[in-house]
UniProtKB/TrEMBL annotation:
It comes from Gluconobacter frateurii NRIC 0228. InterPro entries: Phage_virion_morphogenesis. This is Phage virion morphogenesis protein.
Length: 169
C-alpha cells in the first residue's frame, strides 16, 4: 500500500475550521447580513409595486386613490411612514425576523374582509364621499417572501463569510 505521512503543525487548518464552525454555532452576523438582503428586496418590490413573483399589485380602489397620502401602493406620505417605513429585519442568535409591526401589515400580505364589530355597517370617507358598507374587502398584496433571487444573494453573502473565515491569519 502506498501512503503519505504529513508532519508539522496543523494549527492553521484547525484555526480555519474553527472559524468556519463558529459561523454555524453563532450565525447572528450572517443573519444580520441576510436581513439586510431581504429587507432591501422587500422594499424594492414595494417600490416596483410587484409581489414576490413579480406580478403587479392589485390596483387601489379609484375612490381611495383620489385622496391617498403618499406615492403608490403600501407607501405612506414619505418612505419613512406607513408600511414601507415600518419594515425591519432583526437577527438574534439563530433566528432572523423581518416584516412590519403595523397592525394592518397582515391585511395587506394576506388580504382581509373587514366587518363592523359593534355596528350594522362600516362608515368611512373615501375620495371626499361618505360610504356605509356591511363589509370591505382589502385584496392581498403580498410583499414578504424569500424569493429565488434572495436565495442567490444570500448564498453569495454566505460564500463571502466562508471566504473570509478561510483566509490565513
Amino acid at each position: 500500500m502506498a501512503s503519505i505521512s504529513l508532519t508539522g503543525s496543523f494549527q492553521p487548518m484547525r484555526d480555519t475550521l474553527e472559524r468556519i464552525a463558529g459561523i454555524g454555532r453563532n450565525p447572528e452576523n450572517v443573519l444580520k447580513a441576510v436581513g439586510h438582503i431581504v429587507l432591501t428586496s422587500t422594499r424594492h418590490r414595494i417600490e416596483q409595486e410587484v409581489d414576490p413573483q413579480g406580478q403587479p399589485f392589485k390596483p387601489l380602489n379609484p375612490q381611495y386613490a383620489l385622496t391617498k397620502e403618499g406615492p403608490g401602493i403600501l407607501r405612506g406620505p414619505n418612505f419613512n411612514a406607513g408600511l414601507y417605513g415600518s419594515l425591519t429585519a432583526q437577527a438574534s442568535g439563530p433566528v432572523l425576523r423581518w416584516g412590519s409591526n403595523k397592525v394592518y401589515a397582515a391585511v395587506h400580505q394576506f388580504g382581509a374582509v373587514i366587518k363592523p364589530k359593534n355596528a350594522k355597517q362600516l362608515s368611512f370617507e373615501m375620495g371626499g364621499s361618505l360610504f356605509h358598507r356591511g363589509s370591505v374587502t382589502v385584496p392581498a398584496r403580498p410583499y414578504l417572501a424569500f424569493t429565488s433571487e434572495d436565495r442567490e444573494d444570500v448564498l453569495t453573502e454566505l460564500e463571502g463569510f466562508l471566504r473570509r473565515a478561510m483566509r490565513p491569519r
